[in-house]
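Changelog note: in this version the structure field was regenerated for every chain. One regenerated record is shown below for reference.
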Amino acid sequence: MCRTASIHIVRRQVIATLTGLGLLATGADAAFAVDLAFSPDCRTFSQINVTPPNTGITFRKNPNSTTTRAATATVFRIGDASNIIIPAGGASCFYAVAGNDSYCFLARSSSDIINVNAVAGTNTAAAPACQ
């Protein structure tokens, strides 16, 4: 197989993976995605830096299933001590924010939600606003 064909195959696989994760459609950069593990005491957290042209963070409940879409998840923004709710009825939401802060996955209404994926980006897919 020639090198060009190999590159095209790998590129298609990456695009398919990003589309499956819902990252490509939101204008998010998968290289900067973090998985926030469930941490009710907020000891496990990750720093997320939102810089232009990004306008916020897409949060997504994982895995994406009927059960997890029906549940809520709460992410805690440590810097300003605020809760961000990923509402029931969907897998993800968009939180408009700029700057650098740390976040933890603090609460869930279903233990089926294993983690929350968070990635800085733009809301080109028109995900609902987080609560």
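Spot check on this record: The CA atoms of residues 31 and 119 lie 9 Å apart. Helices lie at 3-21, 66-69.
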